[in-house]
């Protein structure tokens, strides 16, 4: 029998592992998530990417989401949690990196109450604002929010609304903090050490390639 946490995290007939990946805009969340996927077999779900896909799909909420992103505001949790839940269900995987979420208390509470899932831990990329600003201004992904005016607003929202979420998990001893100002490879060395020591004691992804796309009975 599982522990209380196991029972809470039982979803779709299997135990679900969620790692929240947090850090300021431009701290390197997406970059490191791509590396973690390769090495540890997680499914990467970026809340921002899901919201941008929702805009592109022409959904009824698209216009509202687009204007909120342009203003650096946090989209109502009801929308974001629904998109995350759908993506988790469709993935067929049971290990998720949830990137850029929860970004405020409302995100955190809604996810917790709707899914009943508690994160295994929070991976927190700690990076000075001037480095994040430099990275965002040279990120060439054609994003409407990577301009100085919106970046300032995003930094303000990050300080006022997102950092308190990190503090919440920190007070529960559930945050793994990474020095994100280093080069990509050096950051990944630190990330790997965390995943190797925290979760992957059992076996690395490469040893069980067939287990990933099958739903457990
Ligand atoms: N450690 C790093 N050093 C320098 N540039 C980085 C580093 N990590 C990511 N980048 C670059 O900075 C930009 C923002 O990275 P990204 O992973 O998109 O951050 P986030 O998802 O946190 O906003 C991208 O252009 C990326 O290539
Ligand atoms: N949980 C979330 C995540 C992102 N977003 C919106 O999407 C924008 C971009 O988020 P992102 O995670 O892709 O941005 P980065 O931190 O990767 O630069 C945010 O500034 C918010 O406007 C949101 O409303 N709620
Ligand atoms: Mg990102």
TrEMBL record:
Its cofactor is Mg(2+). CMP binds at residue 107. The keyword Cytoplasm applies. It catalyses: CMP + ATP = CDP + ADP; dCMP + ATP = dCDP + ADP; UMP + ATP = UDP + ADP. Keywords: ATP-binding, Cytoplasm, Kinase, Nucleotide-binding, Nucleus, Pyrimidine biosynthesis, Transferase. GO terms for biological process: 'de novo' pyrimidine nucleobase biosynthetic process; nucleoside monophosphate metabolic process; pyrimidine nucleotide biosynthetic process. A ribonucleoside 5'-phosphate binds at residues 52, 73-75, 100-103, 143, 154. InterPro entries: Adenylat/UMP-CMP_kin (IPR000850), Adenylat_kinase_CS (IPR033690), P-loop_NTPase (IPR027417), UMP_CMP_kinase (IPR006266). GO terms for molecular function: ATP binding; nucleobase-containing compound kinase activity; phosphotransferase activity, phosphate group as acceptor. It is an enzyme of class 2 (transferase). Its EC number is 2.7.4.14. It is found in: Cytoplasm; Nucleus. Binds 1 Mg(2+) ion per monomer. ATP binds at residues 26-31, 139, 182. GO terms for cellular component: cytoplasm; nucleus. PANTHER family: NUCLEOTIDE KINASE. Catalyzes the phosphorylation of pyrimidine nucleoside monophosphates at the expense of ATP. Plays an important role in de novo pyrimidine nucleotide biosynthesis. Has preference for UMP and CMP as phosphate acceptors. Consists of three domains, a large central CORE domain and two small peripheral domains, NMPbind and LID, which undergo movements during catalysis. The LID domain closes over the site of phosphoryl transfer upon ATP binding. Assembling and dissambling the active center during each catalytic cycle provides an effective means to prevent ATP hydrolysis. Belongs to the adenylate kinase family. UMP-CMP kinase subfamily. Monomer. This is UMP-CMP kinase. The lineage of its organism: Eukaryota, Viridiplantae, Streptophyta, Embryophyta, Tracheophyta. The gene is LOC110795033.
